[in-house]
Design brief:
The chain is α+β, with helices and mostly antiparallel strands. Helices cover about 30% and strands about 15% of the residues. The strands form 2 sheets. A 3-stranded antiparallel beta sheet has the order 1-2-3. It has a 3-stranded antiparallel beta sheet with strand order 4-5-6, covered by helices on one side. Helix 1 crosses helix 2 (about 70-95).
């Protein structure tokens, strides 16, 4: 058995995963401003989305096949990375993420425009991916924001603070 020795992913080695993680990290920065960006680490030929200390909590990822259609590869990669990021943040930081600022409950990754009775992913899901909220006890499910654009969905004061932090970077 190999010793446990994950290493930081070499920049440029996983371009689609890196691009997707950059998108997801915008949401992390907008909603958890004190949390350092997530990063990619590699262990035993698998890539993981990790918090700043290098720990993760998901099954690992692989760069999509080069011959996959671009729109499908980009959507699938973003979905895989966003899902891995959500699982890692939730399990490693012990908090739901991302949280709907209006209903104060965790959101879920879905294709844009899905309803409460959505059955799950299929090969035709090439739409834009969103963070989806189930709503309150009386319903009111809604798409909160596309992945990478959570900062724009925050209430006024939080949105202004998020934009201010972004400009300082």
């Amino acid at each position: 058995m190999k010793p446990f020795d994950p290493r930081r992913a070499e920049p440029g080695r996983y371009p689609r995963l890196e691009a997707a993680l950059d998108t997801v990290n915008r949401d992390l920065a907008a909603t958890l401003p004190d949390q350092p960006p997530l990063r990619l680490v590699v262990w035993e030929e698998r890539v993981y989305v990790a918090v700043s200390d290098g720990s993760w909590h998901h099954n690992g990822l692989r760069e999509p096949d080069a011959d996959a259609p671009d729109d499908l590869a980009l959507t699938l990669t973003l979905g895989l990375v966003a899902d891995a990021a959500q699982e890692t943040v939730t399990e490693r930081l012990w908090q739901a993420w991302p949280v709907c600022p209006f209903h104060k409950i965790g959101t879920h990754l879905r294709p844009e425009g899905t309803a409460v009775d959505w059955e799950g992913w299929n090969d035709g899901d090439r739409e834009r991916l969103v963070w989806w909220c189930r709503g309150g006890t009386a319903g009111g499910c809604h798409d909160l924001a596309p992945v990478g654009e959570l900062g724009g969905a925050l209430p006024g004061k939080e949105r202004r603070a998020s934009r201010h932090r972004e400009r300082k970077r």
